[in-house]
Design goal:
This protein is α+β, with helices and mostly antiparallel strands. 26% of the residues lie in helices and 18% in strands. The protein has a five-stranded antiparallel sheet with strand order 5-6-7-9-8, covered by helices on one side. Helix 5 packs antiparallel against helix 7. The longest helix has 20 residues. InterPro entries: Kinase-like_dom_sf (IPR011009), Prot_kinase_dom (IPR000719), Protein_kinase_ATP_BS (IPR017441). One of its GO terms (molecular function) is protein serine/threonine kinase activity.
Length: 386
């Protein structure tokens, strides 16, 4: 009789309804005989509202972030089995592991994302059954001083922010082999995926305005706390089931000073501001604003203002600053796009002033423009430079 309902062929049987479902990856003789069983079951598990409400209480049990959670029901296996390390998929030539002793208060499910140095997994807090996302960094990758600095900075920044349009931070867990960041799970769709499902891969001005307003609201909040995101793009905006915006992935985020300019070449090529490409000294907010303008243009047209099949061509066109706004875009919206894509970061409109713009105030409701036509759309979402 094998434990946890696992048969010799590696299949998994769902436990009887009256019992609590616990799904694990079981390792025998260093061979994994079950795979991502949560894919079958996680949507069937009840997800009550979280018990924490105060911004000061960031983790699932109501304690201040960093404190140890109260003991949850013990898993049905002995101490030796509990301390085992369970292999996950390889990432960037480094094997990541889930340490069950470090994540004793969570059931960890399937992969929901991956980056250059981290994998993100869906998880459930055992006590509240509240879903969350756990970003897992292998400590082997953190041996690189630059990567470690960025990760620690990301955690520091996430702890500082609390805004309805920004993904929430719950806690960090320092395991023996991994560093875990527990965050809000945004169940919905990435903005890019939402866009490509639309006719001609574009939104009307009313829908685009509502999404863009929330993005800029999150940016304005960050800038007010001297934080800049530095990687605003379609892929880093998530829509929940009610189509509320959540800014995600603060891996490039940093704190800035109005008195001290800096230069760091980072971000996604299509969204890079000219001051970055020209290697000028700058401070953060105008860079975020520029990227938000590229994103707005993409929402409305299904393409990017500066196109090219190589990074160099994209950069050359950004430097020249020449682009065409389709005729079906309303004049107020066109004016806002031009104010955002101002090549001069000093005169470029701020996030605060964007929220005061007539197009935002009127929620994109302007009738003096023609309907979108297929001929005006240039699809660049498959461009290698995205």
């Amino acid at each position: 009789m094998r434990p946890f309902g696992i048969t010799r062929k590696g299949t998994i049987r769902k436990r009887a309804p009256e019992k609590k479902l616990i799904v694990v990856r079981y390792i025998e003789d260093s061979v994994s005989i079950s795979e991502n069983s949560a894919d079958m079951y996680h949507d069937e598990i009840a997800s009550p509202n979280p018990i924490f409400k105060s911004p000061a209480q960031k983790n699932f049990n109501g304690n201040v972030t960093g404190t140890k959670s109260p003991a949850s029901p013990s898993l049905p296996f002995g101490p030796k089995a509990k301390a085992r390390i369970i292999p996950c998929k390889d990432l960037s030539d480094n094997t990541h592991f889930i340490e069950m002793d470090a994540l004793e208060h969570y059931n960890v499910w399937s992969d929901i994302g991956k980056g250059s140095y981290a994998v993100v997994k869906l998880a459930t807090h055992k006590q509240t059954m509240h879903k969350c996302a756990i970003k897992i960094y292998s400590k082997k990758s953190l041996e690189d001083p630059a990567i470690k600095k960025n990760v620690l900075r990301e955690i520091k920044i996430l702890k500082k922010i609390d805004h309805p349009n920004i993904v929430k931070f719950y806690e960090e867990i320092n395991g023996k082999n991994n560093l875990y960041i527990v965050m809000e799970y945004v169940r919905g769709i990435a903005l890019k995926n939402h866009l490509v499902t639309k006719s001609n891969k574009k939104l009307d001005e009313v829908e685009a305005c509502e999404i863009f307003r929330q993005i800029v609201s999150g940016l304005e909040y960050c800038h007010g706390k001297n934080i800049t995101h530095r990687d605003i793009k379609l892929e880093n905006v998530q829509l929940d089931l009610d189509f509320n915006v959540k800014l995600i992935d603060f891996g490039f985020a940093t704190c800035f000073s109005n008195e001290k300019k800096s230069f760091i070449f980072c971000g996604s090529p299509t969204y890079m501001a000219p001051e970055i490409i020209n290697k000028q000294m700058f401070f953060g907010p105008p860079v975020d604003v520029w990227a938000s303008g590229i994103l707005l243009f993409a929402l409305l047209t299904g393409g990017f203002p500066f196109q090219g099949n190589t990074e160099k061509r994209v950069f050359d066109r950004i430097k020249k600053g020449k682009y065409d706004i389709p005729s079906y875009i309303s004049r107020p919206c066109s004016d806002l796009i031009r104010a955002i894509l101002d090549p001069n970061p000093i005169t470029r409109i701020t996030a605060k002033d964007i929220l005061k713009h007539i197009w935002i105030i009127n929620r994109g409701n302007f009738d003096l423009h023609s309907s979108p036509s297929k001929g005006d759309n240039i699809d660049v979402f498959d461009d290698d430079c995205n």
